[in-house]
Amino acid sequence: MTSELSLLGLSLQVAVVATVMNLVPALAVSWLLVKRRIPGGFVLDLLVSLPLALPPVAIGFFLLLLLGREGPFGRISQTLFGSDIVFTWFAAAIAAAIVSFPLMTRSIMVAMAGVDQRLELSARTLGAGPWRVFLTITVPLAYRGILAGLLLGFVRALSEFGATIVVAGNISGRTETLPLAVYSNILLGKDGQALKLIAITIALAVISLAVHNWLLSRGGHREVNG
Amino acid sequence: MTPNADGVSAKRPGDREPIARFHIIKEFSGFTLDCEAQFSSGVTAVFGRSGSGKTTLLNCLAGMVRPDDGYIEIMGRPVYSSGGNSSGRRATHLPPERRHIGYVFQDGMLFPHMSVAANIDYGHALVAPDRRTLRPDDVIELLELGPLVDRPVGGLSGGEAQRVALARALAASPELLLLDEPLSSLDAVMRGVIIRYLKKVWTELRIPMVLVSHSLSEVMALAEDTLVLSGGKKVAQGPPARVLGEPAVGAMADYPALENLVEAEIVRPTEGSRPGQILVGDATLEAPDVYGRIGERVTVSIRASDIIIATGKPSGLSARNVVPARLTELDVVSGRTLAHFDVGARLVVEIMDVSVREMGLRPGSDVYLIMKSNSVQVLNPERP
């Protein structure tokens, strides 16, 4: 039981850190694409969605090249902290963050697009600058959709496997998250243990998705009436 | 109730500074707005069909849309300049929040996550204290919003929402107020109510307004000056009564639907089957549904095609309203004639060309206007 708990703990830690890392970039990118309609936005839009279309294992490989001892970020980490990023839980969090970023951002974009631009323009004419409009109008009106996007990203981060195993390995007690442990148990022929872990994963996913759907249904309701 | 006169930094139209001076060029797909004009009256209407560019013009003034070329000055301050050509101006494009221009959208656009009071405070709180000319309480009193302030905005009616939107814009102490079709989403009665409040904004607060409308009746009821746009170009500008007769306006106006929306005072409310009485200018008129207090000011609607003209005082009529009036102007537009009358208030009557000739009507003619009391509709929501 203790091993399941520590697996669960590490998985949650990785997914939560990945989600928190994504929050600000996802809000910023959504705002630029939906509200600012920046020139060349379609390139950014494409880049945001790219991880969704790539095999996670390829993303893991790119990350390995970037974060590894010979990669630019790996070297910085070596110089600054005297330690590697790859094959740590933090590498797993980075992998989970990148893979879950498109889902999170696309949900937040939908939520922000649902806020009538004329409300934001009204606030501008009342003296609010773009930053204040974002904080007092856009975010409060889109917060359910933003939370739903965060949860969707969280669920995706929780189930991340392909990129993680490449860049963080599968080190028991250090980088082994629930999906990796499922994989190990299958390889070892421990079907019962694998199923048990899958059950935990399913429970987490069901809870998160239920909350996600609840947020969106109430959020949609409010948009219509507001 | 008068606005706080201290710290008024805004220039008011009385200073003879034009409210707005601009030349706006903005191209859209297959359509170009190219309009040079000056607004100097307290209330200016921008009139035109949908797609004529009138809302785009308003959005350029507010800073929501950036023109391609030209310049915009509000109260003598340059707020936009392309910096090009021979203007000698530096390229400028002030964002909306730095223009001190209030903007009221067609359907109010209240912040749905805030109460009425929070909506009204939103802009006020962002104005530098030394620039504030109005307090939220003043505005709430002027627009009679007291009973609504603690309500969430979700439950407001269209007319209430429009009033709160107006209050919200005013509480930010704007130097100029822009209104995009402020009446078009309202029913007839609410329209009359909002017209009264809009008039107060100018008469009591001296905040100049520019409003966009596709309704001649609204333009006549509210504006002193009218800019007529067609296909992105200015085709006429002048007082509504004058512009009304322009052929360019005739082509886009729906004269049979033309209403006289005039201000009136309640003389005697309706009691049972006895009709009430109102005072329009110098004329006392009977109307079936007059509800409210004696002396209360209301808006009254009389269709231009519901008024009959007689050269002599008629007798033996069932119509209850016979009012002496002087013809001031005749406009012949696309086969229809609009006769303007002065009864202490201005009334427009639509008649046939033939009648004008046969009756020998000309400006200066003294006649009688005949209206059934049922044609006089008092736009007041109060009912016993």
Structure, described:
The complex is a heterodimer of chains A (226) and B (384). By secondary structure, chain A is an all-alpha fold. Chain A has ten helices and no strands. In chain A, helix 6 (117-125) packs antiparallel against helix 7 (130-158). The longest helix of chain A is centred in the first third of the chain and has 35 residues, at 2-36. The termini of chain A are far apart. The model of chain A is unreliable at 219-226 (pLDDT under 50). By secondary structure, chain B is an alpha+beta fold. Chain B has two domains: 20-100 and 175-253, Rossmann fold; 259-379, RNA polymerase II/Efflux pump adaptor protein, barrel-sandwich hybrid domain (OB fold (Dihydrolipoamide Acetyltransferase, E2P), Beta Barrel). Chain B has nine helices and 21 strands. Chain B has helices at 54-62, 116-124, 136-142, 158-171, 188-205, 216-222, 240-243, 247-250, 353-359, and strands spanning 20-28, 31-39, 43-47, 69-74, 77-81, 92-93, 101-104, 176-180, 209-213, 225-230, 233-238, 259-268, 276-280, 283-287, 297-303, 308-310, 321-333, 336-342, 346-352, 366-371, 377-379. In chain B, strands 7-8-9-3-10-11 form a six-stranded mixed beta sheet, with helices on both faces. In chain B, a hairpin with a 7-residue loop joins strand 12 (259-268) and strand 13 (276-280). Chain B starts with 19 loop residues before the first strand and ends in a 5-residue tail after the last strand. Chains A and B meet through helix 6 and helix 7 of A and strand 7 and helix 4 of B.
Features:
heterodimer; A: 226 residues; mainly alpha; 10 helices; 0% strand; globular; disordered C terminus; B: 384 residues; alpha+beta; Rossmann fold; OB fold (Dihydrolipoamide Acetyltransferase, E2P); 2 domains; 6-stranded mixed sheet; 5-stranded antiparallel sheet; 9 helices; 21 strands
In round numbers, the mean pLDDT of chain B is: 88
Binned, the helix content of chain B reads: 10-25%
Assembly status: heterodimer
- Tally of individual domains of chain B: 2
